[in-house]
Design brief:
The complex is a heterodimer of chains A (265) and B (662). By secondary structure, chain A is an alpha/beta fold. Helices cover 48% and strands 11% of the residues of chain A. Chain B is globular and about 90 Å long. In chain B, 27% of the residues lie in helices and 25% in strands. The two termini of chain B are 21 Å apart.
Chain lengths: 265, 662
């Protein structure tokens, strides 16, 4: 199975690990991530101004390219996923934005939200299947107690993201079970890490991250996983260091026995 | 040729503000058959009706068109007025220029054009109307009450006391309903069981009340005054006549791991059980799904210990068919499921409970014997937080748009009872608004605040966060103080929205009674006929019609009983003459009409016909006008055009359409 893939800027710089482990694992699991050409930064934040379309165009270009190839579009970074998914929803449902974006783009055929956007985790759950992953695990992470940290961008707004139950998600816990570890459910797993506020009010972000870490550690986690480079940064920089934080793809590669190959890249 | 009079109503400004009524009169007067047209401010008033009567006599009118509100509102009024003036009531047609026109349009010119068209259609129809004569049908002097909660019990008692036979059909093993699960009742704080059980006993002992528990309505046919109902008596596996209610079987039953429905799953019951100690009848049932004997064949302990020999594993479901003149729906409510509200951690912590669960905890016969304690560790709480409007007054699709109406009062009750019995427990209530209209209600709430020191915070809760040490952190806002609140609690109680019992959909379909988008049964008129369904002979009692507390439920139950009694007291009912009729010369006996008839009103007979001189015996459809409800399904299905509905003939409908398209 071949998917269009949108990595995003951070996965080329700070978050290389998120990307390389994902690609290597995909190869082993039998699906291909075909990077779209000339992708541009998603903007990092979903533009709320609905009288402004320039900030939405990068997403539209990526979405349209996937459409032209007849592929689903896979993302990995929570922020990119959030932006692209919401812009896609706009293109599908908001007449005004759709019309103005298309007027600007001058595509051979107008884009109207036809592309299906999938997060890598959704590919694992809905296309590959966690049961199938379980069978391919050669190095089960037995005895590891892992707290899934969802953050907010993957889950909300729930109706548009349609990723999981925003108040009681299960996809990452299922993932943790699939790679042989034990999920730790803690109430702060879907709370915000502070996001970009860490640039302006570092202390506020720190206090939010500390709460997340304390809660996870309190319920017995000895490791946190995330899909978001910014969450990872904030938790590491602003948390109290009680728990290590890694990308979920790293553990996936480790469980599938391809961590070394990926590391060599 | 008809002589038609057209009467255009202003309805105060309801119609006249949006529709140019003079213009409607002017245009209507030009239509074929119209010999008189006028407008008046309130056509339904005494004076308006006199205008109509006067015109009928002076102009020798043979048909009327009243351009006014919905026929559901005043068709009967105008038909009666016409009848008094010597005109056949079925020569009256209503053009609905209020609900279908003035109320939904803003532009006067457009609305007037539409009103003229609607009038034209009605005039075209009246031109083809023929006088119809209603028939008569009998009334079976027995009522059926569906649901054995306080609503059903009260309705049954009132009907029976008036001298009529009543049957109660209750789905669970005992009557009593939700009220039997409650501990104390607001605003008097008297014990729920103490006021309910005497009524249960009275109903059970009443010579004119028959109670079918563990039974469900399976099929309903017939119509007002003459319903035929199949009741499924589910196999109890216990002989009602032999059982003495000693309770030994329940004690000895080895299967004791089924969550108790009565205690909201907070503890377990045996497979053979009565829901609660005061159950009526005091005869247990075997829950076959959880019974070891039924599942594996090996057990039979209850049969061995039963001195009376009442256990009967061979018992089968039984269908009882009964006739009724009136049916009262009293199917009640349940609390909503909370899977859409995971932010309150109901599924994650045992110490987050619903208010109904708290009723069971507070009840001396409940799972904790009336001791207030945390279900996780059995410790007494020190801090309790109540969250109101969980799923009620909800702006999105997760919950209910309506106010559940009872929660503000029972939350005040819970808070007060806890502060009274455990003065060292702090109680905080988060609310959107406190709504306490009702006799002595606001005084009751103020007592909770002023006398018992309950801490009321205006604001909603965003999240309940279970802590590693077992405490709950409640994250909310105080809107009056404009600040975020983090409050540690030992227990959180959710005032969960109520919704109609899910079975009501099935029952409403059987009764052809309408329900709204929230599954509440619809009244015939929101203000003037609040306890009747639009379907004749069906009455509404209790929360199945809308959220209400016990006093309101009892009042409505009595009102529903009075309406049912009013029906049962009649010897004969006049029937609607707008029934189907088959033209024997066109009918080819194909049976299509009989197959689509929902009332079983069409049969076939072999009869000789004279078809333009040819005499032969043919198979022909015959409509039983007593059973026909005039739905028109057969007229649409009939391939040869033989079936026609009197008062709504194919010609009349086509004439209306032609008039609209003209």
């Amino acid at each position: 199975m071949k998917y269009s893939y949108y990595p995003g800027c951070t996965l080329r710089t700070k978050a290389k690990a998120l990307d390389v482990y994902a690609r290597e694992s995909a190869r082993l699991l039998g699906f291909e991530l075909e990077e779209i050409e000339n992708w541009q930064c998603c903007g990092g934040v979903y533009p709320l101004g609905n009288d402004e379309i320039a900030t939405k165009l990068s997403s539209v270009r990526a979405l349209n390219e996937a459409k032209e190839k007849g592929q689903e579009l896979v993302t990995l970074c929570s922020a990119c996923h959030h932006v692209i998914k919401r812009v896609n929803d706009d293109m599908r449902n908001v007449e005004d934005i759709r019309q103005r974006a298309n007027n600007y783009m001058q595509l051979s055929e107008p884009y109207a939200g036809e592309t299906n956007v999938l997060h890598y985790l959704e590919v694992l759950r809905d296309r590959v299947g966690f049961e199938a992953i379980k069978e391919k695990v050669v190095n089960p992470l037995k005895g590891k107690k892992i707290g899934a940290y969802y953050g907010c961008l993957l889950l909300r707004p729930g109706r548009i993201m349609a990723f999981d139950n925003p108040e009681n998600p299960t996809i990452m816990e299922e993932f943790i079970r699939a790679i042989g570890a034990e999920p730790v459910i803690y109430p702060y797993r879907n709370e915000c890490c502070g996001g970009y506020i860490s640039l302006k009010e570092k202390e506020l972000a720190c206090s939010m991250c500390e709460k997340i870490m304390d809660s996870a550690a309190g319920f017995g986690a000895d490791l946190l996983i995330t899909a978001c480079p910014l969450c990872l940064y904030n938790l590491n920089a602003g948390g109290n260091g009680r728990l290590p934080v890694v990308y979920f793809t790293e553990l996936l590669a480790e469980a599938l026995g391809v961590k070394k190959e990926a590391g060599n890249q | 040729m008809q002589r038609i009079g057209v009467f255009v109503c202003h309805c105060g400004s309801n119609i006249a503000a949006t529709v140019d009524v003079k213009k409607v009169v002017e245009m209507a007067a030009l239509e074929p058959g119209v010999v008189h047209a006028e407008d008046y401010q309130y056509m339904c008033s005494e004076a308006g009706q006199s205008l109509i009567a006067k015109a009928i006599q002076e102009k020798q009118l043979t048909g009327l068109v009243v351009c006014s509100c919905s026929p559901r509102m005043h068709e009967t009024t105008f038909r009666k007025a016409a009848e008094r003036a010597g005109l056949n009531p079925y020569m009256v047609e209503i053009a609905n220029i209020r609900e279908h026109c003035s109320w939904i349009h803003k532009d006067m010119e457009e609305a007037t054009r539409k009103a003229v068209i609607l009038a034209r259609a009605a005039i075209a129809k009246v031109n083809l109307n023929t006088p119809l004569q209603p028939g008569e049908s009998r009334v079976t002097k027995r009522a059926l009450v569906i649901g054995g909660g306080i609503a059903g019990i009260q309705t049954a008692l009132d009907i029976a006391d008036a001298g009529y036979e009543v049957d109660i059909v209750e789905k669970t093993p005992s009557i009593g309903g939700r009220m039997s699960q409650l501990d104390k009742t607001f605003p008097t704080l008297d014990c729920s069981a103490c006021i309910l059980t005497p009524k249960m006993v009275e109903a059970a002992a009443h010579e004119r009340i028959r109670i079918y528990t563990y039974s469900e309505v399976e099929k309903v046919s017939g119509f007002v005054g003459d319903f035929t109902v199949d009741i499924r008596k589910k196999a109890r596996s216990v002989d009602m006549d032999k059982c003495t209610g000693c309770g030994v079987c329940q004690e000895k039953c080895p299967s004791k791991k089924t969550p108790s429905e009565f205690n909201r799953g907070l503890n377990n019951r045996s497979a053979i059980y009565t829901p609660f100690a005061q159950a009526i009848p005091n005869v247990p049932v075997i829950d076959r799904e959880h019974c070891i004997k039924f599942q594996t064949g090996k057990c039979g302990v209850c049969a061995k210990v039963c001195q009376a020999g009442a256990i009967d594993y061979e018992q089968k479901d039984e269908i009882v068919t009964e006739k009724y003149g009136a049916i009262v729906v009293a199917t009640g409510f349940d609390t909503i499921k909370l899977d859409q509200y995971d932010e309150y951690a109901y599924s994650q912590s045992k110490d987050v409970i619903t208010s109904l669960e708290l009723e069971r905890i507070m009840n001396a016969a409940g799972p904790t014997k009336g001791h207030l304690e945390r279900l996780s560790d059995g410790k007494p709480p020190k801090e309790m937080v109540f969250i109101q409007c969980v799923g009620s007054r909800c702006a999105d699709e997760r919950g209910k748009s309506y106010c559940s109406k009872i929660c503000c009062m029972y939350t005040a009750k819970h808070a007060m009872l806890i502060r009274d019995k455990y003065p060292d427990v702090n109680v905080t209530v988060f609310y959107i608004d406190v709504r306490t209209p009702g006799k002595n209600f606001d005084e009751f709430y103020r007592r909770a605040v002023e006398q018992y020191g309950v801490n009321y915070i205006k604001g909603q809760v965003g999240k309940v966060i279970p802590q590693p040490d077992g405490k709950l952190l409640v994250q909310g806002v105080d809107l009056l103080d404009n600040r975020r609140i983090m409050k540690e609690a030992d227990m959180v109680v959710l005032a969960t929205a109520i919704e109609p019992n899910p079975d009501v959909r099935k029952i409403a379909t059987m009764l052809t009674a309408s329900i709204d988008t929230n599954n509440f049964l619809t009244e015939a008129h929101a203000k003037l006929r609040p306890v009747e369904s639009p379907t004749a002979g069906i009455f509404l009692s209790g929360v199945c019609q809308g959220p209400k507390d016990i006093p309101e439920t009892v009042a409505q139950a009595g009102a529903a009983a009075v309406k049912a009694i009013g029906l049962l007291a009649k010897e004969k009912l006049t029937t609607n003459p707008c029934t189907a009729k088959s033209d024997e010369l066109l009918c080819n006996g194909c049976s299509v009409c009989a197959n689509v008839c929902p009332y079983g009103a069409i049969t076939y007979e072999e009869r000789q016909v004279n078809d333009h001189g040819i005499r032969e015996v043919r198979r022909l459809a015959v409509v039983n006008s007593a059973l026909c409800q005039g739905c028109g399904a057969c007229t649409v299905a009939c391939p040869s055009g033989a079936m026609d509905l009197q008062g709504f003939s194919n010609r009349q409908i086509i004439a209306e359409v032609d008039a609209i398209c003209r």
